[in-house]
Design a protein that fits this description.
Layout (H helix, E strand, L loop, with lengths): L25 E2 L11 H11 L13 H10 L7 E4 L1 H13 L5 E4 L6 H8 L3 E4 L10 H8 L6 E5 L11 H10 L3 E5 L3 H4 L13 E6 L12 E4 L2 H7 L10 H12 L5 H19 L4 E3 L6 E6 L2 H12 L1 E2 L1 E2 L9 E5 L3 H35 L1
Helix pairs in contact: 1-9, 2-9, 3-4, 5-6, 10-12, 11-12
Length: 374
């Protein structure tokens, strides 16, 4: 045949997730930890490399890692599911609780994979836009839940890309108001220090999503995990891909999880760098900066796409451009880097904005001169 039949209609207008893999000297676009694994952990991983039987499939359920995560969280292994990053677990959740005739709820602007997976699975996607301050519209949320048809709710906490933290009282109200599965995405938990874990025993419909990709420097290996009621985990095992988490990732994640205290000093330094980033941006005329509870900062500036381009082309600094995202017009997001990277970014922003102010002033002066001549 010289043709192929089209895919499902649901994919017709679905835009893929665009991570914009662009090289730069200063990479501040993807909310990664700017530091690689500590040297002592790299040495131990190097020893593990030669001991792994690469000809054998990995443990399909990552049993040892599940056991260690469960013990650290006061849970049973049956309350934990490990995935190939949080992204795989989000898809598993939508495959199990979404689909045709099922309703998935989220709160844009937020992590776009919730809506992409909902649309890809023919789920009915309901989106309640956030308020101008990026908080959740509580009245609209509770009114929508009262209809009783919502099956799955995604709440990123802190929210990406806004850095906003939802009040714990609101999350409890949501859990009490619905029998939908409520997924609280705590990908940035290590930076916010806020978690819904204490409420799991009272709410069978609560699931908590976490990752090794942010605070624990394992973005390259893709490991995430879900905490939930054992019945929820059992249903998710019906739709997950077998052997999705490879042997090396499982070994690395176990090592990192056991050595979590090693990362505390670096996390504390990143929080100080975040404060420096917020303060520095707030000092630059023409920049509106928003507070954040994560390892990134959202800010608004006129002609944001041009600023993004100037940062990359003139200063080799890569940030994330959200200026065309509804609700985030003229917004850029910058990840918290090392102190040196933060200073370089701030110096670049100061130079770019100063040049733009000078150009605007010159334009006004030239226009006034032409008017006087006329």
């Amino acid at each position: 045949m010289d043709r192929v039949r089209p895919p499902r209609e649901a994919l017709r207008d679905l835009a893929p997730y665009d991570a914009k893999h662009v090289d730069a000297e200063v990479m501040l676009a993807s909310n990664e930890n700017p530091l690689n694994l500590p040297g002592e952990l790299l040495d131990r991983l190097e020893e593990l490399v030669v001991r792994i039987p690469y000809n054998r499939y990995p443990d399909p359920m990552a049993t040892r890692l599940r056991e260690e995560i469960a013990e650290a969280n006061g849970l049973e292994p049956g309350n934990v599911l490990v995935g190939n990053g949080g992204d795989e677990l989000i898809m598993d959740l939508v495959l199990a609780w979404g689909g045709p005739g099922r309703v998935v709820l989220d709160f844009p602007p937020t992590f776009v994979m919730y809506s992409i997976d909902a649309k890809a699975t023919d789920s009915t996607l309901v989106q309640i836009p956030r308020k101008p301050d990026f908080s959740i519209d509580e009245d609209a949320l509770m009114a929508r839940l009262a209809r009783g048809d919502v099956d799955l709710v995604f709440i990123a906490n802190p929210n990406n890309p806004t850095g906003t933290l939802a009040p714990e009282t609101l999350l409890i109200d949501v859990l009490n108001a619905t029998d939908a599965l409520v997924v609280v995405d705590e990908a940035y938990f290590e930076f916010s220090r806020h978690t819904m874990r204490p409420h799991m025993s009272r709410h069978a419909n609560l699931a908590i999503l976490r990752t090794f990709s942010k605070a624990f420097s394992l973005a390259a290996l893709r490991a995430g995990y879900l905490l939930a009621h054992e019945d929820v985990i059992a249903e998710l095992t019906k739709v997950r891909q077998p052997y999705s988490v490879n042997r090396f990732t499982q070994a690395a994640a176990r090592l990192v999880f056991r050595e979590r205290p090693v990362f505390e000093a670096a996390i504390s330094q990143l929080l100080r760098n975040r404060d420096m980033l917020v303060h520095g941006l707030s000092e630059i005329e023409g920049v509106e900066v928003f507070s954040s509870e994560a390892n990134f900062v959202l800010f608004r500036v006129e002609h944001a796409s041009a600023v993004w381009r100037d940062l990359l082309k003139e200063h080799s600094v890569l940030v994330r451009d959200f200026s065309r995202t509804p609700g985030l017009e003229d917004c850029l997001r910058v990840s918290v880097g090392t102190e040196e990277e933060v200073r370089r970014f701030l110096a670049a922003m100061d130079e770019i904005m100063a040049r733009r102010r000078a150009s605007a002033h010159f334009g006004v002066a030239a226009q006034a001169a032409r008017h006087d001549e006329g």
